[in-house]
Amino acid sequence: MIDVRRLRYFVAVAEEQHFSRAAERLGISQPPLSEHISALERELGVALFQRTTRSVSLTEDGLNLLPHARRILRDIDRCGEVIRDARWERMSTLRIGILHAHAYTFLPRLLAAWARHRPDVRLTLREHATQDQTTVLLAGDVDLAFVREPVHENDLGVTRLFSEPYCIALPERWTTAKAGRISVSELQDCRMIGFPSHHASGSTRTLFRDFLIKHKVKTADFLEVRTMHAALALVAGEQGFSPVPRSQSKLGLHGVRYLPLVEPPPQLSVGLAHRSQGAGALAQEFIDFCVEHFQRPDW
Q1: Which of 96, 111, 120, 132 sits CB 3.0–4.6 Å from 128 for a disulfide?
Q2: Tens digit of pLDDT for each residue in 48-67?
Q3: What sign does the CA torsion over 216, 217, 221, 225 have?
Q4: Which of 260, 256, 262 is nearest to 174 (CA)?
Q5: Please, are residues 50 and 19 in contact by the beta-carbon 8 Å criterion?
Q6: What is the pTM of this model?
Q7: How far apart are CA 145 and CA 140, in angstroms?
């Protein structure tokens, strides 16, 4: 019986047309590779390569063997794929919608904990902008979605997971009166950069309007961009400040620093939404797991 490993070596040499390059590709040294090719030739009783000091080329027998060798190796590799595919098909799948910022704030630790809890469940993630967070659920593209509250959709139910305060993202070169904090009064006559939400009540402008009025602060103007990433890029470019959820401060960006407010700031609530007709047993288990996870002080 032909050694499958030798067939792989044969294909590598045939494709590279060079023993040294083939050996490097295979991660072995050249002498063992040459020995295996010679052994394969003895086993088949034919010469597979014409060798010179500078080149290697296939003989007619080598040319005849190459397509068969490739097909055999593809079939062997496919055996592993078939087993893996069958295993995946037996696994339950949970489709989850996430906002872009979740991927680098709370989500990695949460999903790692879930994977340890239910390693038999396959998760798929669909990223979407805040404006689209309810659309993906209503369209049936996901089973659950992490959302910024409030959600004003009769066809959706939401389980609140946590609330967190806003902090201020500002250019690194801006100075503040207090070290490590900023007062809302220091934002007087500065440009505020914000981003929209799926509903007007959740936009940065709406959330901070009453807060600024309460403290008699008037910003120079307001610039709305589509995403938090764009807002932070403008902050780095010293175009203004941007209110962001506290968990956002985990993302270090050149030219941007995050400071808590001296005054009690507005809060952002994050929930897990599902269609009102029911989340399903697996989805409900994930919701319950998330509720418990965010009750821990170190989440």
Answers
A1: 132
A2: 999 887 779 999 999 999 99
A3: negative
A4: 256
A5: no
A6: 0.65
A7: 11
The letter for the amino acid at 292 is: E
211, 291 contact by CB (below 8 A): no
Q: Residue 99 contacts by C-beta under 8 Å, 6 or more apart in sequence?
A: 127, 128, 129, 130, 133, 146, 147, 148
Residue 227 backbone phi and psi in degrees, to 5: -130, 160
Q: Are strands 222-224 and 56-58 parallel, antiparallel or unpaired?
A: unpaired
User: Which tens digit of pLDDT belongs to each residue from 110-166?
Assistant: 999 999 999 989 899 998 877 787 888 888 889 999 998 888 888 899 999 999 999
Tokens of 250: 């985990």
Could you give the residue ranges of the DSSP H alpha helices within the chain? 4-16, 19-26, 30-44, 60-90, 107-117, 135-138, 204-214, 228-236, 281-294
Contact 272, 147 (CB under 8 A): yes
